[in-house]
Amino acid sequence: MDVIVEGKITPEEGIDEVIQTVIDLKAVQHAILRVTCSDSELQGRVAFSQGGYILGGQVTESGETGYAAVKRLLEVRKGNYAILDPGRTYVPEVNQSLWIKGEKVIDRLPNLPETVDDLLDANPEALAQKMENTPIGRIDVKTDRSEDAKNAPHTTVEDVKSKARQLDLSGYRSIKQIVIYGVAAIIGSWIAITYGGEIGDWLVTITPQWF
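-> structure tokens emitted (211 positions)
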């Protein structure tokens, strides 16, 4: 999975900012939010669907899943997070088809309700079919045939306004530098092979002018 956004969870820039960041990533069909608490050993993942819906989660240590896992992870107040793009990877362990709207979770933070009932939409089954057009209980990250996904405006990480986001461009910069150096080396070699003799003669003619 590719890490597309990462950063820290602090009292000033909390998990609500992180959730909003995920919601704003319109170009990512299915995002995975990885949360690590710095005050305990709690860590785990929460699955999001395009449109800002939370599908489920899993706590790494205990294997706990469902709303209980989502509640624990999204109540972390100090730690680290990373937003991952699973691409074509199928991630069933973090999908319990909860279909909780992210904005509802933000409104109820920092203390989420004990049960998921207050956060669920009236008809999650119909919503799932509309958003995914795939069987309930499955994230089909290989394709997205929904009209919402087709018509969604393309949004890059730079478009996200959340203060908590921190774009990781280290890999991109490294690749860019390698490409630039490689092209420069090829051009330099070609010039040396093609015009080496002429350049040498030219340097001999101008050398006395420098001393």
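The chain has a mean pLDDT of 77.
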